[in-house]
């Protein structure tokens, strides 16, 4: 892939992207009530605390919902492809591309990362694949 389809980053998101580049899945977690949240936000939606840290997730979850895209939005991701909403073991819902396999509701998946070389700074994308999928040739967490 080329660097022409890099992510749009907000200042609050930078720790997420830094962790992704290390192939770690992290989400913002409230230091007061411990609730994890995604997307990131300057205050906790539950208790309004501004104190937070970036919690390392297990990278495992289950498909909560999925859809198949039949239109190409980014050259690096030609259609058709499947986008899944994953309920992580920690309870946070994350959305991403299903890297391999066919989706089903409740299917156990795990995060896999692909590092994208970019002249303006490499970045990594979190995708999902079936926990039982044969890993030969795949990117590992
Ligand atoms: Zn809180």
Strand fraction equals: 35-45%
Number of strands: 8
Largest sheet, if any?
5 strands, mixed, barrel
What is the tally of helical segments?
A: 1
User: How many domain modules?
Assistant: 1
How do the helices and strands line up, and which of them pair or pack?
Elements: H1 14-21, E1 26-30, E2 36-37, E3 52-56, E4 60-69, E5 81-88, E6 93-100, E7 108-116, E8 123-130
Bound molecules: zinc ion.
Keyword list:
globular, 39% strand, 1 helix, binds zinc ion, mainly beta, 5-stranded mixed beta barrel, 3-stranded antiparallel beta sheet, 141 residues, disordered C terminus
Describe what is shown at a glance.
This protein is mainly beta and 141 residues long. It is built from one helix and eight strands.
Task: Explain the overall architecture.
It is built from one helix and eight strands. It is mainly β. It has one domain (about 10-130). The strands form two sheets. The protein has a five-stranded mixed β-barrel with strand order 4-5-6-8-7. The chain has a three-stranded antiparallel β-sheet with strand order 2-1-3, covered by helices on one side. The protein is globular. The relative contact order is 0.21. Residues about 135-140 have low confidence and may be disordered.
């Amino acid at each position: 892939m080329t660097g022409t389809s890099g992510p749009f980053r907000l200042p609050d998101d930078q720790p997420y992207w830094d962790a992704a580049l290390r192939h770690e899945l992290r989400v913002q977690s409230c230091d007061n009530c411990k609730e994890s949240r995604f997307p990131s936000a300057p205050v906790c939606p539950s208790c309004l605390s501004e104190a937070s840290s970036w919690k390392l997730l297990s990278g495992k979850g289950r498909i909560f919902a999925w859809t198949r895209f039949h239109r190409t939005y980014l050259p690096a991701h030609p259609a058709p492809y499947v986008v899944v909403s994953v309920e992580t073991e920690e309870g946070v819902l994350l959305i991403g591309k299903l890297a391999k396999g066919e989706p089903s509701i409740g299917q156990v998946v795990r995060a896999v990362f692909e590092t994208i070389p970019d002249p303006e700074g490499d970045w990594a994308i979190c995708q999902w694949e079936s926990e039982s999928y044969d890993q030969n040739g795949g990117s590992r967490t």
